[in-house]
Amino acid sequence: MTQPRPNPPQNALRLHHELTRIWGRPKGWRGILVSVNHSEIGFRFMLTSFAFFSVAGVLSMLIRAQLATHDGAFLDTDLYNQIFTMHGSIMMFLFAIPMLEGLAMYLLPKMLGARDLAFPRLSALGWWCYLFGGSIILLALLGGVAPDGGWFMYTPLSSKAYSPGINADVWLLGITFVEISALAAAIEITVTILRMRAPGMRLTQMPLFAWYMLGTAAMMLVGFPPLILGSILLEIERAFGWPFFDVARGGDPLLWQHLFWLFGHPEVYIIFLPAAGAISTILPVMCRTTIMGYGAIVAAVLGLVFLSFGLWVHHMFTVGIPHMALAFFSAASALVAVPTAVQIFAWIGTMWKGRPQMRLPMLYLMGFFSTFVMGGLTGVMLAIVPFNWQVHDTAFVTAHLHYVLIGGFVFPMMAGIAYWMPLFTGRRAIRGMGEAAFWLVLIGFHGTFFIMHLTGLLGMPRRIDLYPDNPEWVLPNLVSSIFGFVMAAGFALFALGLILQTRYGPRTGRDPWGAGTLEWALPKPSTVYNIASLPIEGARDALSLARGEGALPGAPRHQRETLVVNMISGRPEHVAVLPGNAMLPITTAATIGVFVLLMLFGLYTLAPLGLIAIAAICWRWQGFTGTRQGHAQVTVAPGLQLPLSWHVPDGLARTGMVCTLIADGTLFACYLFAVGFLTVIAPNWPAPASTVAQGSALLAAGTVGLLALASGCARLAQGRGAGLAAGANIAAVLLLALLALRLDDPTAHARDALRGAGLGYVVLHAVVGAMLAWLCVVQRRDGRIAADRPGAAPVWRLWQDYSLASAAILAALVILQEAA
Amino acid sequence: MSWPLRALLGPLWWAFAFAAIYALHGLGCALGWTALPAPVWDLHRFVLLSGWLLSLAIGLLIVRAMPDDKSTAGVIARAGAWIGLVSVLLTLFPVLNLSSCEVTAPAENLFAMLPP
After folding, report:
1. Contact A167, A136 (CB under 8 A)
2. Are A452 and A484 in contact (CB under 8 A)?
3. Which end of chain B has fewer beta carbons closer than 10 Å to its terminal beta carbon, N or C?
4. Across the interface, which of A319, A323, A339 has its CB nearest the CB of B98?
5. ipTM over 0.95
């Protein structure tokens, strides 16, 4: 390949105005509603998560006030249950995950040398879903109907029999609504890192933060589906009585625990890895050196990503699991300390070889080291089965959890905020405020939670609101409560410092920390387009990029363009045309919100209308895609001409669909696990004799045959078979409807409930398959699919193949069950 | 084989082996394999040990198949292969001598230990 040469220099101010016009948004409320820019959306994620953090922090103060004395009359039991459940749920789902998403969304394009994320409207949709879902959960608290079964919603406590109100539904529906944003962010981040790096940046040359975020996003793709499946199954059980978790009818509450912790334990690493990415970015700068052991750290991330999925059962050591299985998970839990330790030693080595400066971000990093290592060590203690049995469900576990999460996420995030605030605002911190906040938080934290280990060892269980018969727990609880308020004061001071910095902090130059990394080469505060031209060999410094000497200078075609590269080598492949501002993300999120509310208030007969509305509004998203005419290749730089994304089959959308199907496939695998688990482990199996008739086999075979026909049609060039495939998908839906009528009563036994759920899964895929096929029909008609324009066909084909495979597996499963 | 796949091969193999042996363990307990004879020991332990040894052998093959590449990419790929092998060795070694299907459910004992 000919190496691209730098473009001739242009007037930087003219380029700035040209790019701002294309990448900017209208002023005022309309601009806020339609914006899809990654900096703005990322910042909103961080700001909103900080607001939720404040709410959850206030709730924790209420908990500490209640526990300060043995017979606290501050809260009654019902309210206390709601408050500790909301504290955990908000911190996990509405603070930690969105915070890391926001940071990644804001930073990654700047670090990788791109102008935006791969799917800007998807990030906006994610934020609106997060805002609406989080608001539903908060409003439930104000209405006194917040979730009250613990942040892990164990069944049978959260089943209809023991939680008859809507409290559990708020959690199941609200959190699932919010998780749309998590999955959207995971797809967004994965595709951006893999396909939108600066030209020539190989995977092994990426900043470590990108490696950490790639690992995090991959974990989110695989980690969230088990929880989403569990939430859907539990909500179906609560709404329609299908017994997935009801022992009497072939279900098992342990299935919920498996699905929850299949998500819940990787979640800890999903939270930790971005924080570790921030540490690996900030620490070398603070130590005026380079990171030690780049390859070792990447390998450690790789190890963590995989091993963290082999630990989930250590949350279930006391439920009655065979010794050998306990030992598998105990060993894996201890082993995961090794890649974590590799990183810790690499960071210590970096400090050793550098010249550390105790500036504000470094102070918070020291807080991380002193706290997280202790949390890690108690983690190893908890990995050992006999010790785990002794402290299970006591305050010791609460202390460990907070050491890991505040040590491993909050301190690094505070370091990150202190470090990147000049990038966000163009201003430096107010001297002394961040330092004072640090000491308050550090002293307050250890005063609160170190002593909580001892409270736990004294036998105090978690989640109790009164302990009138245990005077020995009074003093440690009182100490924890006092220091808890000290910590809260520290967080408040930190927030105040940020607000004052935004308004009154001294102006900063381009690179206040002397970092030398790409994000600091941009103007401060950053522009809406990030970078006037993209870095290439010979044009990497801030000035030459601002003058348009890099690739793809300005916006000469009056559209939002950025480069797409080869996943591994970083070789430029084509120019992506990204969508502009739109109301679609907020209207789509609002429509999903209406469906969630219909389900929440038990209006199940109206809920299908909500689904139809969602399908209708999703259809409108295709309006932007594709082009109706051929376009010549674009000169990206002298010696480098590339096609526009409309003319290549392997575009961002296809990579995005692969990521979507990985998440979808994980959900399906979890469904198969649920079938296997209940069949093998649950009491009250085998199920009663099935009355599924012979004709059902024909219907199932017919469905698979129709999906195979659609899959075959998707292979024809230029979407020629799309019309037939759309018909085949619709016919498959009709056959499935007939099949549904012949299934056994799904409320009778878990086997039949699982069959019903599986059938629903295939219906959903056939409907989406029909919509994608019809989109190809439309695109063929209006010219968006032609000889040189693949349109939606590559994406449709992937979906159709997946639908066929999952339907065939389900059919085989039912045949096996019937044969057995 | 592309570089990312090479780097992922070891951990992917561990994930497969771990899931498969855990599933075989559950299946064997449910189907009463501990009471069935096998060429060595009972059928349950025989199947699990065979699975573990096979997993180790394949993990070792993956390590041996990695090219001797000194670049960062090569180091990461080799580290990935070793992560897979060591993880198979350490997370599944309990198949060697622990009792297979016996259960201790200590939760009720824990609550019994709490002060009245």
Report:
1. no
2. no
3. C
4. A323
5. no
Question: Considering only CA atoms, which of A539, A763, A655 is closest in space to residue A214?
Answer: A655
Q: Which residue has the tokens 């190496």?
A: A3
The single-letter DSSP state of residue A204 is G
Scanning the structure block, which residue is given the tokens 């100490």? A479
- How many Cβ atoms sit within 10 Å of the Cβ of residue A88? 20
Cβ-defined contact of A306 to B26 (cutoff 8 Å): no
A131 domain residue, yes or no: no
d(CA A486, CA A451): 15
- B102 within 8 A of A331, measured Cβ to Cβ: no
The residue whose two tokens read 């198979």 is: B88
Structure tokens at B96: 């060697």
Pairwise CB contact (< 8 Å): A318 & B87: no
Nearest-angstrom CA–CA distance, A494 and A517 = 26
Q: Please state, in angstroms and rounded to a whole number, the distance separating the CA atoms of residues A590 and A724.
A: 34
Confidence of residue B115 (pLDDT cuts 50, 70, 90): low
Residue A756 lies in a domain: yes
Average pLDDT across chain A, whole number = 94
Its domain, for residue A463, covers: 355-504
Confidence of residue A1 (pLDDT cuts 50, 70, 90): very low
A299 → chain B, closest CA residue: B76
Q: Tell me, yes or no, whether A467 lies in a domain.
A: yes
Structure tokens at A30: 């309309």
Residues 6+ apart with CB under 8 A from A631: A643, A644, A646, A647
Residues from A in contact with B at Cβ < 8 Å: 202-204, 294-296, 298-299, 302-303, 305-307, 309-310, 318-325, 327-328, 331-332, 335, 339, 389-390, 392-393, 459, 461, 469-470, 567-568, 676-677, 680-681
Domain boundary (A482, A504, A526) is at: A504
Domain total in chain A: 2
Measure the CA–CA gap between A486 and A442, rounded to whole angstroms: 9
pLDDT of residue A543: 84
Q: Which of A473, A504, A535 is the last residue of a domain?
A: A504
Q: Compute the distance between CA of residue B52 and CA of residue B48 in angstroms, rounded to an integer.
A: 6
The amino acid occupying position B12 is L
